[in-house]
Amino acid sequence: SGAASAALDGVFESDWAIESGAAFVAPARSSGAADARGPAIQVAASGPGLKPEAIRQLLLTAIYGAREEIIITTPYFVPDDSILLALRSAAERGISVTIVVPARNDSMLVRFASAACYDDLLQAGARIAEYAGGLLHTKSITIDRRTSIFGSVNVDMRSLWLNFEISLLVYDGDFSAGLRRLQLDYLERSASIDLESWRARPRARKFLEDLCRLIGPLL
User: Fold this and answer.
1) 2: in domain
2) Chain centre distance of CA 99
3) Which terminus, N or C, of the chain has the lesser number of Cβ atoms within 10 Å?
């Protein structure tokens, strides 16, 4: 119940209408009052027929609004230039920026396209860690231990521009603390990438990374 639940219903009904061409007749909802003591929750959706760039703008606002810490876990990390610049700028102004990605995923092209971003981020002072504990599927962001973003959205261009996606923003310190503990658990089972070692990788690999970066919007 509550406003967030009603917003999720609205997104589902919109997606249903777009895909089926028919209106979805929802069952009657309870008229019970929402619990005003609960955390503030915002629903953000993207996809054909919805406001363009909604989730991308949300991420940019959250990143630029950070003052202390940003932690991201995502299976696919192929940010567009604006997200990459925001993360790099955050790291350069002294904010702790940590990005946890899988050591292996199901697409070699995505892996190379993702790696093409690492040099700029590492040089700016961001920490990038590769999770080796199995499949990393959690798509989450915590900001300053107070704000959480999670849902179906990867930090990649397909999620931000093309796919039907949905994310929840939760403005609550207790909730963010729980999600952050999960993120730190992933981080403990990850290997951080060292800038000096990273720059020593073979030129052939660098070429493949740059090539895959060019097709990033398709990945």
Assistant:
1) no
2) 10
3) N
Query: Which CATH number fits the domain that encloses residue 117?
Result: 3.30.870.10
Model confidence, pTM:
0.85
Measured in degrees and rounded to the nearest 5, phi and psi for residue 29 equal -90, 155
Structural domain boundaries, residue 93: 67-150+172-218
Question: How many domains would you assign to the chain?
Answer: 1
Cα–Cα distance between 133 and 50 in angstroms, integer? 36
Q: At which residue do the structure tokens 């929750």 appear?
A: 41
* Alpha carbons 50 and 58: distance in angstroms, whole number: 14
- The predicted-structure confidence for 111-155, as pLDDT tens digits, reads as follows 899 999 999 999 999 999 999 988 898 999 999 999 999 999 888
- Tokens 């996809």 appear where? 47
Could you tell me whether strands 96-102 and 155-156 are parallel, antiparallel, or unpaired per DSSP bridges?
unpaired
Cβ count within 10 A of residue 215: 12
What would the pLDDT profile of 53-88 be if each residue is shown by its tens digit?
788 888 999 999 999 999 999 999 999 999 999 999
